[in-house]
Amino acid sequence: MMHMTFYWGYKVTLLIDSWKTRSWTGYALSLLACLLVSAFYQYLENRRIRLKLILSSKPSQTLQIRTPLLQSNLDGEKARLGVKLAGAILFGVNSAIGYLLMLAIMSFNGGVFIAIVVGLAIGYFFFSSEGEDVSVVVDNSCACS
């Protein structure tokens, strides 16, 4: 039976029926996986924001962003289309990860909830750049961040 309130215990089913934890070791590994995936979510979000900055920046502002492979190619329309396509792919992957994290939280296990929130905070701490939150308004349909 699915829990409809938060509970604390090591027996949890995450996302699919075959991902069930039956021991403390399996539970700890599942929490570690949730933490790492949520930190990776923040990493991908940072990459997507940087691509959006590159796409919206003027050529003189491009030098401030450390992207040596993309700086010389931003003048052409093909390169801008490639950056826009990469941003769209990153958005799709990041949205999928965000919704999977939301579904994992909907297992209503307190440990899973804490692992995901701590992973998001750790990812934000390590992967967010100073000033990027002010310079870009990000349209994010995911409720995870």
TrEMBL record:
<keyword id="KW-1133">Transmembrane helix</keyword>
<keyword id="KW-0187">Copper transport</keyword>
<feature type="transmembrane region" description="Helical">
    <location>
        <begin position="81"/>
        <end position="102"/>
    </location>
</feature>
<feature type="transmembrane region" description="Helical">
    <location>
        <begin position="24"/>
        <end position="44"/>
    </location>
</feature>
<dbReference type="InterPro" id="IPR007274">
    <property type="entry name" value="Cop_transporter"/>
</dbReference>
<protein>
    <recommendedName>
        <fullName>Copper transport protein</fullName>
    </recommendedName>
</protein>
<keyword id="KW-0406">Ion transport</keyword>
<feature type="transmembrane region" description="Helical">
    <location>
        <begin position="108"/>
        <end position="127"/>
    </location>
</feature>
<dbReference type="Pfam" id="PF04145">
    <property type="entry name" value="Ctr"/>
</dbReference>
<keyword id="KW-0813">Transport</keyword>
<comment type="similarity">
    <text>Belongs to the copper transporter (Ctr) (TC 1.A.56) family. SLC31A subfamily.</text>
</comment>
<keyword id="KW-0472">Membrane</keyword>
<keyword id="KW-0186">Copper</keyword>
<dbReference type="GO" id="GO:0005375">
    <property type="term" value="F:copper ion transmembrane transporter activity"/>
</dbReference>
<keyword id="KW-0812">Transmembrane</keyword>
<dbReference type="GO" id="GO:0005886">
    <property type="term" value="C:plasma membrane"/>
</dbReference>
